[in-house]
Amino acid sequence: MSLKSALESGKFVVTAEVGPPKGTDIKKILHESELLKGKVDALNVTDNQSAVMRISSVSFCKLLLEMGQEPILQMTCRDRNRIGLQSDLLGASILGIKNVLCMTGDHPNAGDHKEAKPVYDIESVQLLKVVAGLNAGKDMMGNELKGATDFYQGAVVTPESNPIEPQLMKFEKKIEAGANFFQTQAIYDIDKFKGFMSYARKFPVKILAGLVLLKSAGMANFMNKFVPGITVPQNLIDELKEAGKEKAMDAGIGIMARHIKQLRDEKICDGVHIMAIGAEDKVPEIMERAGLL
Amino acid sequence: MIITKKRDFKALLENIANYKSFFLIGCSECASLCGTGGEPELAALKIALEAEGKTVTGTMLPKTGCQTLGTKIELKKDKDACAAADAIIVMSCGAGTQSAVEIFPDKPVYPANDTLFLGNMTRFQMFDERCSLCGQCILDQTGGICPVTACPKGLLNGPCGGTNEGKCEVSPDIECAWVRIYNRMKKINRLEDFKKTLSPKDWSASRKPATRIAREEKKEEKK
Ligand code: SF4
Ligand code: SF4
């Protein structure tokens, strides 16, 4: 089932993500993808995540299609100007890629090619408009396309961004620009997230709550300190600590499973986006413990 | 003004290794304010070159180094000193350096400075980049704060996910441009502007090299 049909069917949707490696050895990512096959509804393929140069997102999306999976093409504006972006979108379309997640992209400063020239010719809101245009058979300049695209358009939002007001105004711009679904930045406080959802529900878009697997108390503290827009509440950090080093990952899986269950049982949002960050093999277990498998 | 910083002296010495005598040109505008090409810096470079066994045939501080014709006229009084020099060293921005290249078609000209950006002097010799000369100003739509310059990604429609309690994801030393814009728009009651989606910029407006003949426009206007 396509991501669009899954979301529109009203089922609780699960997406996860895989990051293509640096280099041509893809055994590991193929194995992870295989593990998730038939379990998640769609798989994001990151686009040179954290500005670290890796295999292109489009190429791996194509391999996922060949495996019979539903890929979500992440597209950032960091590395391509408007000509490159549109050209790659048309390319993705003829390969059969149906979902595109439009993002601005981390600055090269965060990555392993700090001397790169950042492009940002356009940005996330404008890219969503561009995709809507391609879907309507027109390029950015209004030139007629010989064959339109048919993308299901995704975007990201950070529900715990601080300050929140400009973030929400941008969220609304993204909806206006054509976003159909959102995957959020990681959330850990379900009550706070309910607040965001009661606002977001006013709009005709599907929302997948972003969940990042906590592997240790140290990781939680690190994210609190260094990752903007993510707050892990103290009670969860304590829970990881109490579990002890050996069992921390297990506790993290338990926390995520519990959150997923609550989000689904209370119908808080339309699904979840699981970011296991290096522990993709744990996703089936998480889903099982959440009662999804 | 144009912000400059001194080039590494060793690199300059390598540039001029084959020459013996020099005429030095500064600039009384930006480079003086930056402390890279005023009277004190001209004097200091003269001493430093002499310490390396070089000869300085003269120094000159034009009013505005990038004003090519004016600088040429001002240099008339230094004709002999210039003629006696093997090469010219310019202590201004890259534009001033290229005035000298035009004025001295048959002499080598070397820059003493690196040219960095168009900046505001916020305090004595403290500079901030606020405009990157994009050719099509959008300050009217961004509360008077330029995101093309102040946001490292040049975003036009609000903060990215990396914004962090008013700081930028790229460096905690940078205030997030879009939080500043939001706060200012709120203060001046223009949040309506924030809600409007800005279109992609027309980068053809900043295509290089640019030229402009303003005086012809004036003539047209008079007609
Ligand atoms: S919008 Fe362009 S012209 Fe206006 S301040 Fe910014 S860079 Fe300068
Ligand atoms: S944090 Fe703010 S200033 Fe920095 S790149 Fe993002 S939007 Fe731009």
Written account of the structure:
- The complex is a heterodimer of chains A (293) and B (223).
- Chain A is built from ten helices and eight strands.
- Chain A is α/β, with parallel strands linked by helices.
- Chain A is globular.
- Chain A has helices spanning 3-8, 27-36, 57-66, 82-95, 124-135, 165-177, 190-200, 217-226, 234-265, 283-289, and strands at residues 13-18, 42-45, 71-76, 99-103, 152-157, 181-186, 206-212, 271-275.
- An eight-stranded parallel barrel of chain A has the order 1-2-3-4-5-6-7-8, surrounded by five helices.
- The two termini of chain A are 17 Å apart.
- The two termini of chain B are 34 Å apart.
- Chain B is α/β, with parallel strands linked by helices and 223 residues long.
- Chain B has two domains: 2-116, Rossmann fold; 132-206, no CATH class.
- The longest helix of chain B has 13 residues, at 39-51.
- Chain B has a four-stranded parallel sheet with strand order 3-2-4-5, with helices on both faces. In chain B, strands 1-6-7 form a three-stranded antiparallel sheet.
- Chain B is built from ten helices and seven strands.
- Chains A and B meet through helix 5 and helix 6 of A and helix 8 of B.
- The site of one iron/sulfur cluster (SF4) has 14 residues of chain B, from helix 8.
Topology diagram in text:
The complex is a heterodimer of chains A (293) and B (223).
Chain A: H1 3-8, E1 13-18, H2 27-36, E2 42-45, H3 57-66, E3 71-76, H4 82-95, E4 99-103, H5 124-135, E5 152-157, H6 165-177, E6 181-186, H7 190-200, E7 206-212, H8 217-226, H9 234-265, E8 271-275, H10 283-289
Parallel strand pairs in A: 1-2, 1-8, 2-3, 3-4, 4-5, 5-6, 6-7, 7-8
Chain B: E1 2-6, H1 9-15, E2 21-25, H2 30-34, H3 39-51, E3 55-60, H4 68-74, H5 79-84, E4 87-90, H6 94-103, E5 109-111, E6 113-123, E7 126-129, H7 147-150, H8 177-187, H9 191-195, H10 214-222
Parallel strand pairs in B: 2-3, 2-4, 4-5
Antiparallel strand pairs in B: 1-6, 6-7
Bound molecules: iron/sulfur cluster (2 copies).
Residues 131-134, 137-139, 146, 148-149 of chain B line the site of one iron/sulfur cluster.
